[in-house]
Specification:
Number of strands: 11
CATH class of the largest domain: Alpha Beta
Strand content: 5-15%
Largest sheet: 6 strands, mixed
Radius of gyration: 30 Å
Order of helices and strands: HHEEHHEEEHEEHHHHEHEHEEHHHH
CATH architecture of the largest domain: 3-Layer(aba) Sandwich
Shape: flat
CATH topology of the largest domain: Rossmann fold
Length: 469
């Protein structure tokens, strides 16, 4: 639930952190900035990939393509052999050869097809009638009662508007959104709405206001035309990840992600011409975030978005508006420029006494303590500890290099074994050589993985002992 300001600050802090970090996140930009390994869990197996999340996506896609190619080739080979068996097993003159082919099929190691989880795919229905402008704030002051948050705001939303709202936590982004929607009356100025305005508003309270006792099907049926068939409604909910009994299950047992998906589905069904989204991805996983990004890119109406998901803002928004120090102004630059602006603004506010986060105070206290330690003794101790762990690290590196060398070759062998011609009698020696090599490499990979795990545990214990000294 951190906003973009807090996430960017956390990135800086974690990148400066010297220990080991294990994290789970649905924010791909955050993963890219922080991680150098991805541990992927799929089909009850764990696979460790080197590099950040973007590198993982590319590497995995290449592996899946190779695996799928090998699988398809093997299917062709097995079909060819099976056809031969079916044709000749009843003929006395060919029975011997048919038995040979049966044994060949039995020996052939079955490859699995490339498995990719079916991604969510949905699209926003064509918006209702349009006019321009759809919504305007003129010289608006926004806030709560006597509390003024921002003044003299001028925003015009047309059918082609793609606006991302930026600003520090508490600057007034959500207040501005509520004022645009009409949930919060203006303190001054004007809000002009077109007669054709149809707002689709997503915020946390939309999730909280779902009918706990009603299923997704029932809640969708309440807002759908009675002429719409049940099959159409079910197909629509299916595109948001609801299937089988979940469509007919009351919402009271739903997770945060399921609630967010249902709230989005109900908004999409109403065909809004202006989408106003306040942190829509908080409870969504990577697949659903990607689906939302693609759907918003194709959406034909206007969008106003507050999000900590940088990929979403960059992919969907054409204009950025900064809410800061009681003002709303167009931000010149991209999200990289905004990150730099945030760091500078935060430093200025700390200097002026505007903000001093507890964790910043803690870091400052740690730096003060470190400055009192004998730096030379600290340097020697660090060097001594590096020397103690060097042999273990070198052996871990050897294991990693061995795995990096053998795993691609194993994929090549699996691909070669999918060649139908390889199983001809004339190529028996070549087949046996490949299968023997495959067996040997698998043994070496297994031993290397086991050794690397033991070494990493040994290294962890040694480093833990340093911390306890």
């Amino acid at each position: 639930h951190l906003d973009l300001d807090a996430i960017l600050w956390l990135e800086d802090w974690l990148n400066a952190y010297t220990g080991t970090l294990i994290l789970i996140s649905h924010d791909r930009d955050f993963l890219d900035a922080i991680t150098n390994r991805i541990l992927h869990i799929e089909n009850q197996e764990l696979t460790l990939y080197s590099g950040n999340y973007s590198t993982f996506e590319t590497t995995r896609a290449e592996r899946l393509a190779q695996q799928q190619q090998a699988y398809e080739k093997q299917l062709e080979t097995r079909a060819h052999i099976q056809k031969y068996i079916d044709r000749f097993k009843a003929q006395a003159t060919k029975a011997r050869q048919a038995q040979s082919r049966i044994k060949q099929l039995e020996r052939m190691q079955l490859l699995a097809p490339a498995h990719v989880d079916t991604p969510f795919t949905f699209s926003f229905r064509e918006p209702t009638k349009m006019s321009s402008p759809l919504l305007t704030l003129e010289q608006a002051d926004i806030g709560y009662g006597d509390k003024l948050i921002a003044t003299n705001i001028n925003i015009q939303i047309t059918p082609t508007s793609r606006i991302g709202l930026l600003g520090m936590n508490g600057a007034g982004k959500s207040t501005l959104i509520k004022s645009l929607v009409g949930d919060l009356p203006l303190l001054a100025g004007q809000r002009k709405a077109s007669e054709l305005l149809n707002i689709g508003y997503f915020a946390q309270h939309q999730m909280d206001s779902l009918d706990e006792s009603a299923s997704p099907m029932l809640q969708l049926a309440r807002i759908a035309d009675k002429k719409i068939s049940e099959a159409t409604l079910r197909a629509f909910l299916g595109s948001f990840g609801f299937s089988g009994e979940r469509m007919d299950t009351p919402c009271e047992s739903f997770s945060g992600g399921e609630r967010a998906r249902l709230a989005l589905a109900l908004i999409v069904w109403l065909r809004p011409n202006v989408l106003i989204l306040d942190e829509p991805t908080n409870h969504l996983d990577l697949d659903m975030r990607h689906a939302l990004t693609m759907a918003l890119q194709d959406y034909e109406g206007a969008v106003v978005l507050v999000s900590h998901e940088r990929q979403l803002i960059a992919s969907v928004c054409d204009d950025l508006i900064l809410v800061h120090a009681g003002k709303s102004t167009e931000f010149e630059g991209d999200l990289h420029d905004y990150a730099n602006w945030l760091r500078q603004a935060r430093l200025e506010m700390i200097k002026q006494g505007g903000i001093v986060a507890p964790i910043v105070s803690k870091v400052s206290a740690q730096k003060t303590l470190v400055s009192k330690v004998d730096k030379e003794a600290q340097r020697k101790l660090a060097a001594q500890r590096r020397e103690q762990t060097r042999p273990i690290r070198k052996n871990i590196e050897k294991c990693e290099n061995l795995l990096a060398k053998h795993q691609p070759r194993l994929l090549d062998i699996e691909s070669l074994l999918g060649d139908a011609g390889l199983y001809d009698a004339a190529r028996k020696d070549e087949l046996m050589k490949l299968m023997n090599e495959q067996t040997e490499l698998k043994n070496q990979v297994s031993k290397a993985e086991e050794q690397m795990l033991e070494l990493m545990m040994e290294l962890e214990e040694l480093e833990s002992s340093f911390e306890n000294e």
